[in-house]
Structure formats: structure tokens, C-alpha cells
Protein: DUF4386 domain-containing protein
Organism: Geodermatophilus aquaeductus
Amino acid sequence: MTQTLPAPAPTGPHAGPMRRTAVVAGVLYLVTFVTSVPTLALYGPLKGDAGFVLGAGDTTGVVWGALLEVALAVACVGTAVVLFPVVRRQSETAALGFLASRVVEAGLILVGVVSVLSVLALRDDVAGTGGADADALVATGSALVAVHDGTFLLGQSLMPVLSALCLGSAVYRAGLVPRVIPVVGLAGAPLLLASDIAVACGVHEQGTALAGLAALPIAAWELAFGIWLVVRGFRPSPVLG
């Protein structure tokens, strides 16, 4: 039986810098994964109780969720900045598309964080002044939560579709990682896009099992890509020179 051995690490004058690039990009991808997964649970008190703005529930998890999302936004931009020179050697269009999608994703995440911090500020004002119009405060808080939901749909759900299409296609053509990894992302992109459209049209809601299943392939592609870059680095490719 013939045993297939793993591809050797890149050699030549660029091997050292490219290995460092792969490790940094991989770590940043893993950071995006670690910082994005817990936020849904941490925002539970905020999303699950309209009276949160009036003082119901604990703020600790919500504060940590906001901090994690700031770290997520920074890591998103970091992945694009680090990988841009590598992807550009394969396709400048794909590199620009990937960079743009990650920057837009980070911007939308930060808009969502601002809406969360605004709810916390309203809550502090209520605690300090006693609040006069509870209905108005609840309506304002609900509107700010809706803003966060919208930024999540566009930023953390739609933009990863564009990122997977741009980065995945370039990585697949260059063979920088095993092709099964970008194939998962490329296959999952239309599935998540369809789910995003369904959420926007009211067919199903964010956070449901159906929406979660639609996001799994993209999550798997990003996680596998990050792990591979950290452990193995880029495969030898003409793109690396």
C-alpha cells in the first residue's frame, strides 16, 4: 500500500517570512473563531429580556461580549492585512475583495458594539436617575438591540460569505493549503447566503438551529484554515515565489 506523505514545508529564501506570515494569519483566524462563538451566550440577558435596559439581569456577560467583539473586529482586519500580499500574488481582485469584506465586517461589528454600549449607558442612567418613562426606555433599548442584530446579519454572517468566496477561490487555485479546506468554504458560502436572505425576508430568525446549521461550513472552513496555517503553514506553490 502506498502511503501519502504530507507536503514538505516551503523552502528557499522566502520560507522563513512565509512561515511567519502563515502562523500570524492562522493565529488571527483562531482569534476570530474564539471571540465570535461565546458572544451569543454572553448577550443572552440583553437579547432575552426587553427589561434589561431597566435594570433586569446581569451586565457582566454583556460587557465581556462587547469586549470580545472589539477583539473580533481587530482580528478580522488583521487576517486581511496579513494575507493580502499572499492572495494578491494569485489574484489582485480576490485580494482586494477579501480585504474589503473583512474591513466592512469589522466596521459593522463595531457599530453593533456601539449599540450594545448605548444600551448599557441607558441602563446606567436609569439606575442613577430612577427613570421616568419605562415604555420609552424599553422601546429605545429594543431598537438598539435590533441594530446589533442587523449588524450581526450583515457583518458576521453575510461578509464571511464574501470572504470565503474571495479567499477560498484564491487559496484553492494556488494550492496553498489542502484543497478540501477551501472547498468547504466555497460550498458553504451559497448555503449561508441563502440563510441570510431567508433571515432578511423573515422566513426564519437569527440564532435558530436552521441558521446555525447554515453557518457551520463557513465556520469549519475558517477554523480548519487557521489550524492548518499554524501547524503546517503554506504548501509550496508558484504563488509564493
In short: DSSP finds eight helices and no strands in the chain.
